[in-house]
Design a protein that fits this description.
globular; single chain; mainly alpha
């Protein structure tokens, strides 16, 4: 057992509680927020090295061993996501210092941000299905308040839709848990894998698997994405960025965990349906991205395209494809946060989110323009930026499997098409906002944005490292992919005392 596994949950939780008691002291809240994120990053980095050389780390909470007690499990896949989430959260916190506003800061913005991360990190680290539901709810309750904080009409309208959709999906989640427990008598993920392998994944369990697929697809915006563009465009930029980077990724993580560890026995049903949903998500998301001419909508649909591309790697279901999906997932967390932060700055300096009201920003804001262009190239998968390696691995495996099943050719073709649509939609922003006739903002003054660009530059540096430093990261991603493809590694680590 490793007590350090719980620290990525305990640190932001304690920081959030302390900040809630210091609501009026914004300065201390800022310091505590930053210290919390740095500590989580440092501890997670140490855990990554431990897993790399010692194997999966577990913690039986209260000393109750699996499958009877609550178990936290830190494998390479979950830790890479926690590590990336802490980097993204740090950048968004730094951005919020200069953009969120005193009123929101005094109404529990920083505590809510910390509790959101408790839910995100807990979802990544839990080894129990019911506790996955609990951490989902912690994350969602925090996101409800963050989405509505400020009380504008647009925010309240988006919050109502967001709350209704997530309440419905949470209800379905609980029903799925009840059905699954009625059949196998356990909710520990490793034990679920063992029990389902023993009794066989028949029609009933496959139907339960489809229930979970619907739940996590709603959370991840996989095909069922109608709620996302409006919800992610309503909150302040720092909140929208952390939503785009982390919230859908928790749903994606749950899909990966459930359909590589628990429900992997009938891929001709489950993974084929995932492939269809991924293909439709990429296609419809791409069409939405190129159809709109307001920045909020374009960025929202780009989040949706990324979800489809990542799940395509899961649907292909080879170790190389899973490695590509993991690598692209890490890239997407970083670059989507960066994209939303830069998009928010563009809207700030232009005074509008409508592209028809923009132009010539490159004259006054050249650094902003070139940062946005590099971000666009990273999302398009242009080497040596971070989006390249993940796309290559997924496309390569899709083409290889297409020789025996032509459906994979279609999936791969749509994945490549979605990359072109991403490039087209974002280059459209770059051309219309930064080139052409110069237009001034509503205030008519050049705005000071250097402080806002610093966290953006940091995220871009991380993106470049993910691309240029791929050789350094490859062993870690390979270990994560191997763990997903061989569930017995996870099972042995969690159930070693029982076995």
């Amino acid at each position: 057992m490793n007590n350090g596994v719980v620290l990525p949950l305990i640190i932001p939780m304690l920081a959030g509680l302390l900040m809630a008691m210091l609501r009026r002291n914004v300065g201390i809240q800022r310091v505590l927020s930053l210290v919390s994120m740095v500590l989580v990053f440092g501890i997670t980095l140490k855990l990554v090295q431990q897993v790399r050389y010692e194997g999966i780390q577990t913690l039986a909470v209260g000393g109750w061993q699996a499958p009877f007690g609550i178990v936290l499990v830190a494998d390479m896949f979950s830790l890479l996501l926690v590590l990336t989430a802490s980097l993204v959260a740090t950048a968004c916190i730094l951005f919020a210092f200069r953009s969120i506003g005193k009123e929101r800061e005094q109404f529990y913005f920083y505590p809510l941000f910390q509790f959101l991360l408790v839910g995100v990190n807990g979802s990544f680290l839990t080894g129990d299905l019911f506790n996955l539901f609990v951490f989902f709810e912690v994350m969602l309750f925090s996101s409800y308040v963050l989405l509505s904080l400020g009380g504008t009409k647009r925010q309240l309208k988006a919050t109502i839709k967001y709350v209704v959709i997530n309440s419905l999906s949470s209800t379905i989640f609980l029903l799925g848990i009840a059905y699954l427990y009625a059949v196998v008598g356990t909710l520990n993920m490793a034990h679920l894998s063992v029990r389902i392998a023993e009794i066989g994944q028949g029609g009933y369990l496959t139907a339960v698997a489809l229930v979970f697929m619907v739940v996590f697809s709603l959370k991840a915006a996989l095909f069922l994405f109608f709620w996302l563009p409006g919800s992610y465009s309503a909150p302040p930029t720092a909140v929208g960025a952390v939503f785009a980077a982390l919230l859908t990724k928790v749903g994606i993580y749950a899909l990966f965990r459930m359909f590589t560890l628990v429900f992997y026995h009938q891929p001709e049903v489950t993974h084929t349906l995932l492939a269809v949903m991924a293909a439709l998500t990429m296609l419809l998301g791409g069409l939405g991205a190129v159809a709109y001419r307001d920045i909020h909508r374009i960025l929202g649909y780009n989040v949706i395209i990324g979800v489809g591309f990542i799940v395509a790697g899961l649907a292909i279901f080879t170790q190389e494809a899973l490695m590509g999906a993991i690598y692209y997932l890490l890239h997407d967390m970083v670059v989507k946060a960066l994209l939303f932060l830069l998009g928010g700055i563009i809207i700030l300096v232009a005074g509008s989110d409508q592209l028809k009201k923009m132009g010539g920003l490159i004259r006054n804001y050249p650094v902003l323009g070139w940062l946005f262009l590099l971000t666009t190239l990273a999302l398009g998968g242009i080497p040596p930026l971070s989006g390249f390696l993940g796309k290559v691995l997924i496309v390569q495996e899709g083409l290889a499997l297409g020789a025996s099943a032509t459906g994979f050719y279609w999936l791969t073709g749509l994945a490549l098409l979605s990359s072109l649509l991403v490039l087209f939609s974002l280059i459209k922003i770059f051309i219309l906002a930064f080139w052409g006739e110069a237009r001034v903002s509503r205030s008519g003054e050049k705005k000071e944005i250097k402080g806002l660009l610093i966290p953006c530059a940091g995220l871009l540096a991380v993106s470049i490292f993910l691309g240029v430093g791929a050789e350094v990261l490859y062993p870690y991603v390979e270990q994560a992919g191997n763990g997903l493809m061989h569930p017995e590694v996870y099972i042995e680590a969690v159930l070693s005392e029982v076995i």
